[in-house]
TrEMBL record:
GO terms for molecular function: DNA binding. It is found in: Cytoplasm. GO terms for biological process: cell division; chromosome segregation; DNA integration; DNA recombination. Residues 1-96 form the Core-binding (CB) domain. Keywords: Cell cycle, Cell division, Chromosome partition, Cytoplasm, DNA integration, DNA recombination, DNA-binding. GO terms for cellular component: cytoplasm. It holds the Pfam family Phage_int_SAM_1. The keyword Mitochondrion does not apply. The keyword Amino-acid biosynthesis does not apply. InterPro entries: CB (IPR044068), DNA_brk_join_enz (IPR011010), Integrase-like_cat_sf (IPR013762), Integrase_catalytic (IPR002104), Integrase_recombinase_N (IPR010998), Integrase_SAM-like_N (IPR004107), Tyrosine_recombinase_XerCD (IPR050090). Residues 117-309 form the Tyr recombinase domain. This is Tyrosine recombinase XerC.
């Protein structure tokens, strides 16, 4: 059977059984189509299930390890290679365990050890500067301040942020200071609004005299949305939010490469530095495993050092 046909079944499995988001499914498709294209180049024909062998997988791993990134002109990082291989392992596991096909074991694909990732985050001074460079005299300025305050207040993923609607923010939500967001795997979690986020959101919503549904909309090309009663075509995209965050970071004089995820890292770091435990932060971030949250232990380690210096040998 052709691998492309089997891939279609696997992607449907991810959607219907694993309840994965469309964004995640697209990424699986991207990585696995890359593998299928490699196998086609190696075999000279449309890849079949029986073409998957330890030899072909090892060749693919070497190919990934020797690839040059178009952007950085450097080789693929271990973490990047790992994402490709994790997708392939999941596919092979589905083929053998769920579908009963005779193919190589997923466990034969060793992932290797990726380099430790220390998350980048902003300190309080940088955060304050970032939140104050928008022009409040413009609707777009009010929008962008609300967007940045919301990202830091809640630790939302950018995909979660752009999916929000105006109707998500009722008077009751502002009163309670919390709302529910649907995260990865379509799992709901509660996030909380800071006083600053409430003020920024209310200021932005007060100038939204339209009937469009999305919480964050673009103001350029708004006349092209005629016939779009819901304003869905005006919803800010992930890429547009990334560009806005970078622009304001530069305007605030921050030299580090700042992304929406930097604000999520800053949110987690701020909580841990204030004394929150790792399990609570895991819940607030919507991580399925606490191991994912452990990238923030650089903060807890620093606090442990402070405790050690304060108390050890003082008796």
């Amino acid at each position: 059977m052709e691998l492309k046909t089997l891939l279609t079944g696997f992607l449907e499995h991810l959607e219907l059984v694993k309840n994965m988001s469309q964004g995640t499914i697209k990424m699986y498709a991207f990585y696995l189509l890359d593998f299928i294209a490699f196998v086609k180049e190696e075999t000279g024909h449309e890849p079949l299930l029986e073409d998957i062998s330890e030899e072909i997988v090892n060749k693919y791993r070497l190919n990934l390890n020797r690839r040059i990134s178009g952007k950085s002109k450097l080789g693929y990082k271990r973490s990047t290679q790992k994402v490709y291989l994790v997708s392939l392992r999941s596919f092979l596991k589905w083929l053998s365990v769920d579908k009963g096909y005779n193919t190589i074991s997923a466990e034969k694909i060793e992932l290797g050890r990726a380099e430790a990732q220390v998350p980048k985050f902003l300190d309080n001074k940088e955060l304050n500067e970032l939140m104050l460079v928008q022009n409040p005299a413009k609707k777009s300025g009010l929008r962008d301040r609300a967007m940045l305050e919301l990202l830091f207040s809640t630790g939302l993923r950018v995909s979660e942020l752009v999916g929000l609607d105006k109707s998500d923010f009722t008077p009751a939500i502002f009163y309670r200071g919390e709302f529910t967001v649907i995260g990865k795997g379509r799992k709901p979690r509660t996030v909380y609004l800071s006083d600053r986020a409430k003020v920024a959101l209310k200021a932005y919503l007060s100038v939204r005299n339209d009937e469009f549904e999305p919480l964050f909309v673009r103001y350029s090309g708004i006349d092209m949305a005629e016939g779009d009663a819901t304003g869905e075509s005006l919803r800010l995209t992930i890429r547009s939010v990334e560009r806005l965050v970078k622009r304001y970071a530069l305007k605030a004089g921050i030299r580090e490469d700042v992304t929406p995820h930097t604000l999520r890292h800053s949110y987690a770091t701020d909580l841990l530095a204030a004394g929150a435990d790792l399990r609570s932060v895991q819940e607030l971030l919507g991580h399925a495993n606490v191991s994912t949250t452990q990238i923030y232990t650089h903060v807890t380690n620093r606090r442990l050092k402070e405790v050690y210096g304060k108390f050890h040998g003082k008796s």
